[in-house]
Amino acid sequence: ALPKILSQTAPAFCMGSCSFVVEKSKESTARVVVWREIGVQRSYTMESTLCGCDQGKYKGLQIGTRELEEMGAKFCVGLLRLKRMSSSLEYNLPSSLLDIENELIESSCKVT
């Protein structure tokens, strides 16, 4: 669910570049070890590029601090949305925490 949320909200995130297969070469990575040995069901690795993007809003541009900050803010928004979607009816997030979602979306981390 988190990758799908990010694909809808974060312009630097590309669902088409995601791989959820455990390849032999990835068996010693943290996400696979955490999944296998500790039992964390949803363990992800998020990668970035220093060379530039070949798709989306940032096609042909090099990634800088502003774009990384924007991705971090969108990641936090994604976690809030995921928590809201997966919370039971008995557990309510404080409204002030949910207001942070809109503040992050409208924050200065937006890239123009």
Automatic annotation (TrEMBL):
Q: Which gene encodes it?
A: Agtpbp1_1
For molecular function, the Gene Ontology terms on record are: metallocarboxypeptidase activity; zinc ion binding
Q: Which PROSITE patterns match?
A: PEPTIDASE_M14
Protein name listed in UniProt: CBPC1 carboxypeptidase
Q: Which family does it belong to?
A: Belongs to the peptidase M14 family.
**Residues of the active site:** 47
Q: Which InterPro entries match?
A: Cytosolic_carboxypeptidase, Peptidase_M14
Q: Name one GO biological process term.
A: proteolysis
What keywords are assigned to this protein? Carboxypeptidase, Hydrolase, Protease
Which cofactors does this gene product need? Zn(2+)
Any idea where the Peptidase M14 domain is?
Answer: 1-83
